């Protein structure tokens, strides 16, 4: 997907003097909370359906804890085995809110499952990547029925990272065999731009200066990556090939998560993520329970039926 959403985002930024959003081109410099669009239009293209493997390609050095935070989040997207002590709101429930998009297109919400986890700690393509490099890395995952997620470490520079985006999603070209996969890239911003891509777990670089929240898993970079990954997975599911659900121009679309920029809880406004749950033991803020007792912060998603943001 093109990252020209930055142009639109920059205009919004200049008007409101605030900061970040999640879009199909990842977080870009724009408002923390945008005025909601009136409609989410379906452009009759294919959506992700069926059983989809989410393969994780870790590029660069990630600690075991960081890899577990991210892989447990992906595992949380699938319904957990029924347990009497299962807690709500959950990541699974959050993902199911996308079902309205699929009923509108007469298809079914895809079932995501954690797939392969690949490591490239030595950075075989170097520590400065372009978009074409991201596609090459994503191709190391499954060739079809997959979302291949490239996760770059804190010391890896990616074209446009921090300057115009925190992540992106797109799709591979069709092969002769007919295989095609969707891909997502998310960067760890802990060292390069935490005030842009790890908000609200870090003091924002621009806009209203509210105190940062405590990250639910104790890692500003990894917990920030989860926020971006969550929004991008919602975008890639509902607009995988650029002709699914979005509002506005195709070159700078607002997608399921983008349309609810900066909203994580009720009462959100620029510089304030909203009313969230707080872990009494750690003081960490979150809005969804995940696998293995994890807690996560996920973005609100736009409800195409009510034209409003849906919280977990």
Automatic annotation (TrEMBL):
Keywords: Apoplast, Secreted, Signal. Residues 1-25 form the signal peptide. Belongs to the EXORDIUM family. GO terms for cellular component: apoplast. This is Uncharacterized protein. It holds the Pfam family Phi_1. InterPro entries: EXORDIUM-like (IPR006766). It is found in: Secreted, Extracellular space, Apoplast. It comes from the Eukaryota.
